Amino acid sequence: MNTALKKGWRPILVLLLLFLLWEGIVRFIEAPSWLVPAPSLIFQEAYNGWSQFAPHLLSTTSLSLYGFAIGAAVGLAAAFCLHMLPFVRESVYPLLILSQNVPVIVLAPLLVIWFGFGILPKVIVITLVCFFPITVAALDGFKQTPADLKHYMKMAGATKQQLFWKLELPAALPGIFSGIKISATYSVMGAVISEWVGARMGVGVYMTLASSSFRSDRVFVAIFAIMILSLLFFLLIKLLEKLMVRWKWKEDKAK
Amino acid sequence: MTVLSLTNLSKRFGSNHVLDGLELHIKKSEFVSILGPSGSGKSTLFHMIGGLLTPDEGTIALNEEKINGITGKISYMPQSPSLLPWRSILDNTLLGQELQGKTDESRAKEMLKVAGLGEYLNAYPHELSGGMKQRAAFIRALLSPQELMLLDEPFSALDELTRSDMQQWLLQIWEKHKPTILFVTHNIEEAILLSDRIVILSHRPAKIKEEVIVPFSRPRNEQLPLSEEFIHFRQKLHKLLQEENKQS
């Protein structure tokens, strides 16, 4: 934790400087607040409007977590199936890449038409955004299992199941966590996009309302909230990684 | 009692004829080394005994049971220690047993302690030196329930001093447990020091060019390689191997 503090001050300082610069420019050119609100105004709004904003944030947080959990599970399950069945991998993998080329912003309204305004279309959007990085990272991880370890396991008589659970999965874990970290931050974005299209609550809704009434300060409050939420998710996964892949962490430290 | 019987073993990869009618029988508690020019099909032979490859002709039998293409019948120690980096040393040595079923933690602890790894039971592999890792890898193979151990140039990646330490250590531990071992090496001295019998493979297609019984009594120690008989014997084997290398 100490090292985090020691290294953490640098980006925080840069951030502070950026805010100061922003504040200075806005005041200097006397920009109207509906066009570019000054940081001081944004923070003020965040503080004053907190009671109004909090329920939206809470709703988005739980939606993100929910969608992310399902997305991660789907991602891992997909990787497992594709890895265990090479024939399926060859025929489905290109389609997976195609699935990522469908713009979410176009897909989301379609999903609302099909599945209504409930939670289902939102979870589908988040899942679509989240599963891919995990599947790709896991598949690569399984494939890059060190050859000498694999050779030993086979010679020692490991079955295909044992090979996977005792070797390939733990060996891929560091890679899988990289994928999960990316997905965790994507999940917040996915949640907000899905809320744009149709929801009663959420940061996405708050944002749409704010921008249509030219409350730019509120739009920025929402943007900052999304950033902080993504960052928190990222840190949470990182903590989990440290606990689960302790050997890797120790090994890297020893180098 | 014969543990391993290789009868009339042949293997081709396309036009590449690797093994041709190889015959080898290993008795219980015998330490047999295979010496051969590089590329003489030693690893192909090991892969076949391990069940990863099937022979084109001939049979591999373990205690009179045919094991062509069946894995899990032998325990194995490769050239690199191949310890899993996320497992502690203790858990690594248990892996061979784990793959076959039951684990015996107290026995593993005991053996690690005797091998001087008592303080490293919960350490990760990267915290150990090369020699220590190989010791752990050997114990993993020794703890595995299978009767026959295949050792594939286990000391070739170690420096000279560690290597000779490891050979002495292996001699001691072999005296104590008397496992049946098939050992591949290209180091003649190592083969003589450790084995009861040395098998010299011919150039491709490999068959047995010569089988020699090592005439030195056990227990052996690090003084043995300095004796005149040892040096004579080594020269004799050297000559045999050289003839094969010339053909390649």
From TrEMBL, chain B:
Key word Transport present: yes
Record carries keyword Transferase: no
InterPro entries documented for this protein: AAA+_ATPase, ABC_transporter-like_ATP-bd, ABC_transporter-like_CS, ABC_transporter_ATP-bind, P-loop_NTPase
Domain ABC transporter: 4-228
Source domain of life: Bacteria
Keyword entries, A-Z: ATP-binding, Nucleotide-binding, Transport
Gene Ontology molecular function, alphabetical: ATP binding
Protein name: ABC transporter ATP-binding protein
